Amino acid sequence: MPRVARKTRTRSHLGRCFFELDSLPQAEITGQDMLDTIALGVLIFTAISLLFGAIAISRIPYRMARERNHPHQDAIAYGGWFSLFTLHAVWPLLCLWAAAYRQEPQPVFGHISEDTAINDKADLAADDSQVDADITDSVTLLGHRYEVLDDRIERIEKAILAASDAA
Fold first, then answer.
1. How many angstroms from the chain centroid is the CA of residue 57?
2. ∠ at Cα 119 (116, 124), nearest 5°?
3. What pLDDT, on a 0 to 100 scale, did the predictor assign at position 77?
4. Cβ-contact 103, 65 below 8 angstroms
5. Is this prediction's pTM over 0.70?
6. pLDDT tens digits, residue range 125-153?
7. What is the mean pLDDT of the chain?
8. Measured by CB atoms within 10 angstroms of the end CB, which terminus of the chain is less buried, N or C?
9. Looking at the domain assignment, is residue 141 inside a domain?
């Protein structure tokens, strides 16, 4: 059987193929092709902007709930994502749910009666002498209350000692 010579691909052959790509006929880019490319870019940008806008809108009820310290913040956040996938069908309900709760403001120092607090007029007083007089009155009142409480403590201690001696 006669021996057939095999043609082997060498590196130079592969390299030559890549360099011959420049000699292929190239399509001309026309003005219409450029407009199509720009229109595609604008379409992609618009789609991405609408997606991020829809996500931002779906987060509004959660932000309202977080500002109001709503006890169901997590549920409202999950509802916002659910609303995103249902094209915001439940979004108005989430807004109402988040807006319906308002936490009652808690007093910082608890309830303070008028006779134990510094007079509120001290903030409104124009001259310092009135403020000083109000502070002096409040300190005098607190000193009197301290004496009363100290007397009560002494009486209670005496009653406890008398009860323990009797037992």
1. 15
2. 160
3. 95
4. no
5. no
6. 456 777 788 888 888 989 999 999 999 99
7. 80
8. N
9. yes
- What does each C-alpha distance from 129 to 48, 56, 89, 138, 139 come to in angstroms? 66, 56, 64, 14, 15
Distance in angstroms (rounded) separating the CA atoms of residues 19 and 17: 5
Task: Give the domain extent around 94.
Answer: 32-99
Q: How many domains does the chain have?
A: 2
CB 90 within 8 A of CB 83: yes
Specify whether 128 is located in the same domain as 91.
no
Residue 104 lies in a domain: no
pLDDT of residue 41: 96
Query: Does 37 share its domain with 92?
Result: yes
Domain assignment present for residue 27? The answer is no
Q: Are residues 93 and 138 both part of a single domain?
A: no
Instruction: Give residue for tokens 């026309």.
Output: 30
Block residue for tokens 């310092």? 128
